[in-house]
């Protein structure tokens, strides 16, 4: 038994594999260059997704190998013409032959010749170097990222050029919430890239490795605020460690380079993050100062919900945002980010928002204008401006809009006060990209409007930062429920930003790992621009939207168990079903392993404080 | 035990529909005035003609069905320099067996396929093999009649069947041979049953003959002697339907007399109980129920193995042309 190079076929342990022959290419159905059938030998054990190799010699002597993947299996009694014949065959009344057929879709023909495999050729299991060729691994010369294990437990790779933006980028992950394991898969990819030696080696030189960043938005519970802790259920999964090893990770563990962020606790003016399942010391409260809010033009991300797009509200926002920049001054004596909006500015002040934003504002005393120290002040200021009698000022700040439109704009801002308010305030620090590779931002407790505001503001920050720096270092952004931020129809600054990232992000090194329940609900540019498309369990009624899957695979995907995905990448013409291993990092509070040492230290500290407070015990 | 559903003689006239597809001709062709009519002697039950319900024989085991098919693929002529023309044919035959073992599925086995060029008048023609697996044996028959070559093809097929049957007797199978037993010339002592579907002539005295249709499924008549070498009886293997004539579903079983009467009785008893299991259904067989399902499937399989008839004809033409060219150059 040998492969195409004449080497004996053996698995990773060096043990010889069973006979690779599985049957013969069917001559009763015609084969073609894309698809053929294999009549299975009686003792061949073949499952869906197995890789098959068929070698042929062309009339001119060229040796050709067809590589394919089993997409369907059939079984029937040959000689039984009617359904009722089945019982007759089983009852030994009619003789019939049990035949099993495997439908194989061609993955690759080596050399690249568009020919059909000959009827009657021997079909073999593609193992060893055959498997490598079948899955185009030999073409992945610029590195290959292990993206999962195939159904036989062998690693499947993606061409790194389509992961890091050189030839393509972005992941699009689809599937039903709860069973499709979209977030888990995104984390698996991040773990491979950011936490394993192999993954880091793929990212390039030392500078690229150290400066790669991933931004993950936590949308459900406080699940992802525990990624830096070991998963207590991991040791109980005996197969998982072996699976990680097969994927090149010898020592799976928690994410090591992580910073966690959460909005500050509502109703508290300080900077205490609003988290329940973690110590507040482990998590950074995030937000923006009024100065950042205005200079970064974050006002645009306040108006992203469905009904904001069809009215003049967006126009007012634009006008108002520029005027804010023109009238912006720093509050004298404060470093906390509070600002003063002057009533008037010189006539020659620019209207170019980018130039205005780049300028360091001068400091003025509080009496020089309207002081804004939080979102409430900002809303008050807007209200004051809207109700002024000065026609000229109204026109300057709100454009030539009707009073009703202005009132609508104001109503929306008032509504946002409660939702966005906690995110804007003096002394707040935005999410930074320093000090860790993985930045987890909790938005789960925020209202939809505030979620969109945070996602828009942070993405805009990443996008602006990368405009001048080129592709590396890479920025990965993991965002679930993409349909909420970039819906299939309509217009909003956030949607346009995401579409822009999808279209241009790969060359600028901003790589989106987006997930959605249904690809049809997302702006078409996003899934279209994703080089790597992954689907977990799909909604059967939605399956039409997934053109990258064959109809059989779409139907199959509607029955996938959690943990089974199918991955399509540009160089492999057929999508490959795969599984990924159980995570060694905690993906929810229940999985997080108790940190005993730290708990004990804390308990002792509290105990000693109590003792100190209670004073010497008095004997009675 | 009489069959209540059987449409036997009643006080009123009854019209029956033959279950065979019209293309196969009628299953019942016995003519009262036929000169071939014989009245065989009943050799069981003290000469009284009875209906027997044999005891349950359990599920069929070590039972096999032997049958063959043949096909004329091309009619040939051979014209000699004197202008005399002799007829012949190129044809194929196949024979095989369906084995119902003690367990496991029914299997087709002992398949033998052959192809020959047969000329009458003692002439032999040798055609060279043709690519694609076409090769012909060279056979001849002394007779010069037009029917001689087709009859010889039939004979070759029957011989092949006999050989297969002989092998199977030797291995201890109960062989059901599709057709009358007189084709089988050897191994008369072995457990073999000739299975006759078509009733060409009356074989019994009229009063016995008229009771045959009252057979129930799985029942048989008393044995009677056909000539001096065979015993026979009638069995009903199935009920085609209320529209059918009285003889529909009735077949004749023949066993060699040389095996002795008690052996013969044991054999037909087993066969009578087992064969209804294999009766075919009208929607899947034009000769149901008497054409047995395993036999139908075997014939289908053998026809399939004979290959495509158009390709056969093409191969014969090309081989003949090659032969003629060779003759010219010689």
**The CATH homologous superfamily of the largest domain in chain A:** P-loop containing nucleotide triphosphate hydrolases
Beta content of chain B: 25-35%
How far apart, in Å, are the first and last alpha carbons of chain B?
Answer: 74 Å
The whole-number mean of residue pLDDT values of chain A reads 86
Summarize the structure.
The complex is a heterodimer of chains A (620) and B (330). With 620 residues, chain A is an alpha/beta fold. Chain A has helices at 85-90, 129-134, 182-195, 197-203, 206-211, 238-246, 290-295, 313-327, 353-358, 375-386, 391-398, 403-420, 448-466, 482-485, 493-508, 525-529, 551-557, 596-614; strands at residues 21-25, 35-40, 51-57, 63-78, 97-110, 122-125, 144-149, 155-159, 171-174, 213-218, 258-263, 283-286, 328-331, 339-341, 363-364, 370-372, 438-442, 475-479, 510-516, 532-535, 564-569, 572-579.
Describe this structure in words.
The complex is a heterodimer of chains A (620) and B (330). Chain A contains 18 helices and 22 strands. By secondary structure, chain A is of the alpha/beta class. In chain A, helix 3 (182-195) crosses helix 4 (197-203) and helix 10 (375-386) runs antiparallel to helix 12 (403-420). Chain A is elongated, with a radius of gyration of 30 Å. By secondary structure, chain B is of the alpha+beta class. Chain B has one domain (22-306). Chain B has five helices and twelve strands. Chain B has helices spanning 148-170, 206-209, 261-274, 293-306, 309-329, and strands spanning 41-42, 51-52, 63-79, 85-100, 107-119, 137-140, 174-178, 192-196, 220-221, 224-226, 230-236, 250-256. Chain B has a ten-stranded mixed beta sheet with strand order 1-10-11-12-8-7-3-4-5-6. A two-stranded antiparallel sheet of chain B has the order 2-9. The longest helix of chain B has 23 residues, at 148-170. Mean pLDDT of chain B is 88; it is low at 1-6. The interface between A and B is medium-sized, with 15 and 19 residues.
